[in-house]
Hints:
Chain A is mostly beta strands. Chain A is built from no helices and eleven strands. In chain A, strands 2, 4, 5, 6, 9, 10 and 11 form a seven-stranded mixed beta sheet that branches.
Amino acid sequence: DTGVSQDPRHKITKRGQNVTFRCDPISEHNRLYWYRQTLGQGPEFLTYFQNEAQLEKSRLLSDRFSAERPKGSFSTLEIQRTEQGDSAMYLCASSLSPGQGNYNEQFFGPGTRLTVL
Amino acid sequence: AQSVSQHNHHVILSEAASLELGCNYSYGGTVNLFWYVQYPGQHLQLLLKYFSGDPLVKGIKGFEAEFIKSKFSFNLRKPSVQWSDTAEYFCAVITSGGYNKLIFGAGTRLAVHP
């Protein structure tokens, strides 16, 4: 499968614990995005990488959230001291950069569903 | 702040009925517009997109959408729906200077009955 993959698919944790999610983008894509989707809402942008550089972070991303893309390939999203309000689906998407193709369609992964008890 | 509004949260139709899902965005500059679809148990996938040119765009599976700049709208249409169109549909926009980040509406859940 050459699509975007995410791991784990589901995570249940207790409030106060730290969690880390992984995203593997499509191999030739140098842009990577994280979104969060809560029940009854569309995905909301969290952060974005161009290669290993994190270029934008949403105000939704509190200090408890950190994302990395150390070698410009896979990315991790860590949430420290989880709260019940962090329960959501965390989506990863990847795309080409301008100049590498027509529109840089974002391809989405299956998401990681986080439940904080 | 930029935002996207989808008028209907739930739509129920019978097969062969016509579909129109409303989408409005709030941004005065240049936009790129999208409709994404999520079938049950599957990933979000692109249905169609508008960048420039002909405001009537055609996507996969017989869907089309019309960009009306004066109304800030990008409504999705299909003349005759099928049971397999049962899914959640999201309208999204990328604004100029927005780093390619998608701003989504809340989604419309469509159920098509045989």
